[in-house]
């Protein structure tokens, strides 16, 4: 339309019953530019904390990436956090005006003419809403398990898919830091530039070499010398595998210029339990406990709480039994996770179910809050138990 004059602006203000004295002198007169349209532009309206985090990411030129394959819901990742993206509609139309000045800028710019003609380049009725979410890391283990590393002598077909750090960044819906942290949690190691997970039997073979050596040399479990391990075991296995197993099952430290490892008792006991339980569907609990204690290195003590998220006790059967149930084999989606747990067992105590849902808790969420949402509680012999809110087929 035609450019407005100051008189027309003042007349409009009067009609709107606005007192010009209460307003800044500068007035924006908006008109639509020739190409202005909706659809190609979309705003971002995250929560405040999220906004600040992303704002700093952009300011410091750190990359923001959208990740997801065709069948996945897109997520936005900064270097160390992951956000769900949802399109939300707004009744207030968002206008995009290039070179638009804020009141603060106008105040600083007193000399500026007090009628500013701005062209609207585009508008939008929706925006991306960003919510901090759990990184979707289940797929990482799944990809690496396609081709676990069975050791240098394995004659396995070499046509399998292998993944570099770059590959994983493009396939996993999580930030780089979250992915690298998870690789550490999974005890993955880089072999010839590719991330691999050791095949469980091969891992146990390596662990066994180390624990037998500790035993025969009568070393203290919290002071295992790296150099001697590599010298003694180097003829049996590649030295980088020996070092990897020490890093997976111990804490590295340096004393007087020498590298030592303090072995993680709980982790070693847990791995040996997994090895024993893998060969049976159910195990008589007291027999299992006996065999397990006999199977761990001298000086280590087995305790059932080392098996959280790995094995489940059935106290209702006579005699009591124990069986393998690994949290990492359960679905990543909350509802599916609960469905699969309730199909394994109808009623759970909070203590039993906690290790199997702990990883689903959002930032400040508790296991109790999660149970309230996905399960209903009742009392059974004076104990609070949880069962499914919906029938499990």
TrEMBL record:
Protein's UniProt keywords contain Lipid biosynthesis: no
Assigned keywords, A-Z: DNA replication
Listed GO CC annotations: chromatin; chromosome, centromeric region; Ctf18 RFC-like complex
One of the GO biological process terms: maintenance of mitotic sister chromatid cohesion
InterPro entries (UniProt xref): Dcc1 (IPR019128)
Superkingdom of the organism of origin: Eukaryota
Entry similarity comment: Belongs to the DCC1 family.
Protein name per UniProt: Sister chromatid cohesion protein DCC1
Organism, as annotated: Aegotheles bennettii
